[in-house]
Amino acid sequence: MNHEERIEHIEQLMDNIIEKNPHCKDIINAFRPVILERCHLVDKLALQNTDAPEIDKRKFKRGVALVRQTMLLRPDDPWEEIAHSLIPAVKQGFPALHQDLDRLEELLKNGNIHIYDYFKSYPDGDTIVAAWASEFNIGTAALALLLRTITRIILEKRSQQIEWKWGNWEKGYCPVCGTFPSIAMIKEKIAERWLHCSQCGYEWKFSRVLCPFCEDQAYREMPFFFVENKEKECAYACEKCKRYLITLNGISDLTIRDLDISAISLAHLDIIMQGKGYEPMVICEWNAI
Description:
Layout lengths: L2 H18 L4 H20 L12 H5 L17 H15 L4 H12 L6 H4 L6 H11 L3 H22 L21 E5 L5 E4 L6 E4 L17 E3 L6 E5 L5 E9 L7 H7 L1 H9 L3 E2 L9
Helix pairs in contact: 1-2, 2-4, 2-8, 4-5, 4-8
């Protein structure tokens, strides 16, 4: 589908979810402008392709993700331009962050902050976020949301450019960026489990009997939780590592979904699971309760 059709499709998916699950209206509508602007930027950005010859097939087979082998986040990527495009969307969805985002926008325009400085140490950039928050008196919530969304845009675009030729990936974390999944999908007919990365949007097939986080083989015997009469929307838990994974179970191959939107709409399951003492496999804006 072309760009306009994709944006319309994403809008319709969000509207449909709200109609079926009115309780998630506020959280979906908060993320709506951010998701739409992210989709717009991913479609329109022109980035230098990933340097495929840098990828070592042997390292990949051992579980070294692409982000650890090649430059998926480059100094010449349009960091500030993306930030300036995103900030109005974040303000619209999260008005409580308006003041922090105004301050951040001013710092970017004046050259006091350079977005790529965060990505020099990716995925270990928490220190610089804390330093910026302290030095410039900006809330970490605004910084984290903006930086995660910028990261998603660049990594999603690059993951679309990659020609996979290094064999199967057998780890529970993403082969592109090394992030653990935010949601899984088990298909109806073939019953394969596909994991979804919220940090780059990549999806990969993974064993149904292993915990993606600790790779414990008793995962198929672990408990799962769901809201009454909604068994297809559940969370599988691992008693060894105490992590859980939101999962769409028995999904038709004909159903077109956006797994990021699905994950956000199921934040009530995050509340249930964290209330039972489990932790998500990856922290996202909507499950950091």
